[in-house]
From TrEMBL:
InterPro entries: Beta-lactam-related, Beta-lactam/transpept-like, Diverse_Enzym_Activities, Transposase_8. One of its GO terms (molecular function) is transposase activity. It comes from Bradyrhizobium jicamae. This is Beta-lactamase-related domain-containing protein. One of its GO terms (biological process) is DNA transposition. Coiled coil: none annotated. It comes from the Bacteria. Residues 79-438 form the Beta-lactamase-related domain. Gene3D superfamilies: DD-peptidase/beta-lactamase superfamily.
Length: 455
């Protein structure tokens, strides 16, 4: 199929007995789209016709964009701009899906799944989620909070005793670093909001931290290949970079939270989330590895030398902070569930009060080091952090359109989503563009979606 053809739909959900099986486009769909391409159908007309398909293949209603206050002509700018980026070889390709007011209004694949192999992007492409794994694991953990098995103020050591006594790296007036006992123990709350004193060794500029994380296999790639017990032992051995509870620092906190989920549930994180979230939500292509039958669907970055997790390998350690894979359609189901206040297709996953709690400000006046939550994840101010989500503080400051209270997260590999309760909007943007350019694309897609919204 030629690259860049639009509107080839696939089921947003698959039956459980068809789990992880690839959907196929019909011959009629392919022929129709080829005819339109050859006939020079205008982009707005193509957008208008193809962003919505038969309701029978979706698990919530679809609608023409204008029926929910969105301009199809302006929506077509998304494809045009992304195609320019692909043509300029700044990104391999992307998948974008949008719902508004509970209706699917846009679904588009642009560019290449694998540029080196000449494979066009498909809407069922599988992407490395990186940090977009965190909201999934955080929702799983909040299920245990709702069941009374965990409280936010619990010490992490209640469930992982090895973390009862932690050291903090301190620097004296002469710049010499020493280890000191932490003034208080980290809590479950700290893990959710990244105030536990943990960081990412790969990105740390502190030699002692980088060395300690390397020695204990806490760097992201090797940490996937050690056992959960070895991971927890490594966390216990390495010093904290900040006093718990005092400072926002993005890092391995949600990975530790994943091990709390394992300790409380008695299941591996992958099994727990599959049972409680992925299978009920019909997120058939979401998990912590890609089965061999679906390896041909894995989206790749432009440069193979980019250090991505090898999602073909069966992990020993399910990384709650960065180890997941998913498709745009799967993740959109998760987003719609959150936008609905914790329910989808008649099944409740969280209460509306829990969703509200998770998407509120949990940092207060705590500083962000080395950067604020928004700068760390979006390259923008104007955001705080909730329980697993970046949360917008107001309509201004951020420099991109949005509503107060919208929430989101982005992955190092180039994936991004946001949920705007005010606009009743959920957007999933999937690409594999690791590195500094990823935040440019987050801001770009946010502006492109916003300019298409009406009343």
């Amino acid at each position: 199929m030629p690259a860049g053809l639009t509107g080839l739909k696939f089921a947003l959900a698959q039956d459980n007995d068809q789990s992880m099986k690839r959907n196929r486009f019909s011959e009629g769909q392919i022929i129709e789209s080829l005819k339109e391409h050859e006939a020079g159908v205008s982009e707005p007309d193509r957008c208008r016709k193809h962003v919505v398909s038969d309701n029978s293949i979706h698990t919530w209603p679809s609608a023409q964009p204008e029926a929910v206050g969105v301009s199809p002509e302006r929506l077509s700018r998304i494809r045009a701009v992304l195609q320019q980026e692909v043509d300029a070889e700044r990104m391999p390709g992307a998948v974008v899906m949008i719902t508004r007011r509970g209706n699917l209004i846009y679904s588009e694949a642009v560019g290449f799944l694998d540029k080196a192999a000449g494979k066009p992007m498909t809407e069922d492409a599988i992407f490395r989620l990186c940090s977009m794994t965190k909201p999934l694991a955080s929702v799983g953990a909040m299920m245990l909070v709702e069941e009374g098995k965990v409280q936010l103020n619990d010490h992490v050591s209640k469930f992982l005793p090895e973390l009862a006594k932690m050291d903090v790296l301190a620097t004296d007036k002469d710049g010499k670093t020493t280890r000191e006992p932490a003034k208080r123990r980290m809590t479950i709350h700290d893990l959710f909001r990244h105030t536990a004193g943990l960081t990412y060794g790969k990105f740390s500029k502190i030699p002692e931290i980088k060395a300690a994380y390397t020695e204990t296999n806490l760097l992201i790639e090797p940490s996937r290949l050690i056992t959960p017990e070895q991971f927890t032992a490594g966390i216990a051995k390495a010093p904290l970079v900040r006093e718990p509870g005092t400072t926002f620092e993005y890092g391995l906190a949600v990975d530790v939270l994943g091990h709390v989920v394992e300790a409380v549930s008695g299941q591996r994180l992958s099994a727990f989330l599959d049972e409680r979230l992925f299978r009920p939500l019909k997120m058939a292509d979401t998990g912590f590895k890609v089965p061999q039958a679906n390896w041909t669907r894995i989206a790749e970055p432009l440069r193979k030398e980019e250090q991505f997790l090898d999602m073909k390998i069966d992990p020993s350690n399910d990384l709650a902070g960065e180890g997941g894979v998913s498709t745009a359609a799967d993740y959109l189901r998760f987003c719609q569930m959150m936008l609905n206040g914790g329910t989808l297709d008649g099944r409740r996953y969280l209460s509306p009060t829990t969703v509200k709690l998770m998407t509120s400000d949990h940092l207060g006046n705590r500083p962000g080091v080395p950067a604020s939550p928004g700068i760390s994840l979006m390259g923008l101010d104007g955001y705080t952090f909730g329980l697993g989500f970046l949360v917008r503080q107001g309509p201004g400051l951020a420099g991109v359109p949005g509503s107060e209270g919208e929430y989101m997260l982005a992955g190092y590999g180039g994936t991004f989503f946001w949920i705007d309760p005010t606009e009743q909007l959920a957007v999933v943007f999937m690409a594999q563009t690791p590195g500094s350019t990823r935040t440019y694309y987050y801001r770009m897609i946010k502006a492109l979606v916003a300019q298409a919204l009406g009343n």
